[in-house]
Amino acid sequence: MIYTCTMNPAIDLYVALDELRADTVNRTIDEDYQANGKGVNVSIMLKKLGIDSVALGFIAGFTGKYIEDFLKELDIKTDFVLVDGITRINVFVNSASEYKIVNQGPFISSKYQELLLGKIRNIPHNSILVVSGSLPKGVPETIIIDIAEICKERGIKLVLDTSVQAVIDTLDYNPYLLKPNEDELANLFGKDYSLSENELIEYGKVLLYRGAENVLISRGKDGAIFLSKDSLMKTTSPHGKVVNTACAGDSMLASFIGKQMINKSLEESLIYATAIGSSTAFSKGLSDLKDIPKLVKEVSIKNIRGE
């Protein structure tokens, strides 16, 4: 079974305008509301692919209930910790440019943090746990290390998709998969500039050397790079009109894990993951998968080991 953990979920409000102007009333030409958060997105995309999961994390108030109800309507199991406050609402504005307004979320006390760790301790052996997204107020980065230690002890395959610096300290516990984007990988190694493709590969290899089993680097319009002890591959990304990039990496991750879980080849998993990530970027929310047969044909994959 796959479990997802979203410690700072959100409702994402997508709005489109012809033009965003200051000091005036801006009226939208389109809007959409989505239960969101990186792990939540992974659970939703897995369900679209016909794969069950259980969604964990923290929810609060009427907005948190909306997220839980949204998932239950999709027949996705939930086991959230209910906390004080209100789950955040993020706003994504698409006009001449894309604007992202991301809120902080509620404060999570140590009592609730321990409740979540207790749920993770009860995850069965050989399960997959995907921990994704930012940390809410009150939660220290060290909780990621605590989770990694639990997963190591319990024989749980840990997948991490988070920008917190503590990811480096989880490598002692051999996480199954790390999925940084280009900026996150640069930040992990203290670099404040865009990494070249060669640098992305070199830093990915460092993560493997220090303990990660697999590394999937999402690159937006440039596709993805995958590294493991035995593989080094890159994909290209299909072309299309970008509408909302917020969930693209989550779609890529869910698709890759889902395809691997049903024993598809690494090459097929990476091609579909890239196509589905791109499809989501071309959509207001998560991909409906209708354009995947077309986009898959536009993705190329190359084994770059030894280059």
UniProtKB/TrEMBL annotation:
Keyword set, alphabetical order: ATP-binding, Kinase, Lactose metabolism, Nucleotide-binding, Transferase
Report whether Kinase shows up as a keyword of the record: yes
Q: Which reaction does it catalyse?
A: D-tagatofuranose 6-phosphate + ATP = D-tagatofuranose 1,6-bisphosphate + ADP + H(+)
This protein's record includes keyword Signal? no
EC number, UniProt record: 2.7.1.144
The protein's GO terms of the molecular function aspect are: 1-phosphofructokinase activity; ATP binding; tagatose-6-phosphate kinase activity
* SUPFAM superfamilies named in the record: Ribokinase-like (SSF53613)
Q: Name one Pfam family in it.
A: PfkB
- Report the superkingdom from the record: Bacteria
Protein's GO biological process: carbohydrate catabolic process; D-tagatose 6-phosphate catabolic process; lactose metabolic process; small molecule metabolic process
Mind telling me what this protein is named? Tagatose-6-phosphate kinase
Species assigned in the record = Oceanobacillus profundus
Q: Which gene encodes it?
A: pfkB
